[in-house]
Amino acid sequence: NARLQKELREREQAEQQLQGERDHSAQIIQGTAALVCVVTPEGLTKFANPAVERVTGYRADELLGCNWFEIFYPGEERAQIERLLRDFERGDVRDYEMVLTTKSGEKRTISWNSINRRDAQGCVREIIGLGTDITERKRAEEAERHSRQHLDSIINAIADPVFVKDEQHRLVLA
Question: What is the pTM of this model?
Answer without folding.
Answer: 0.74
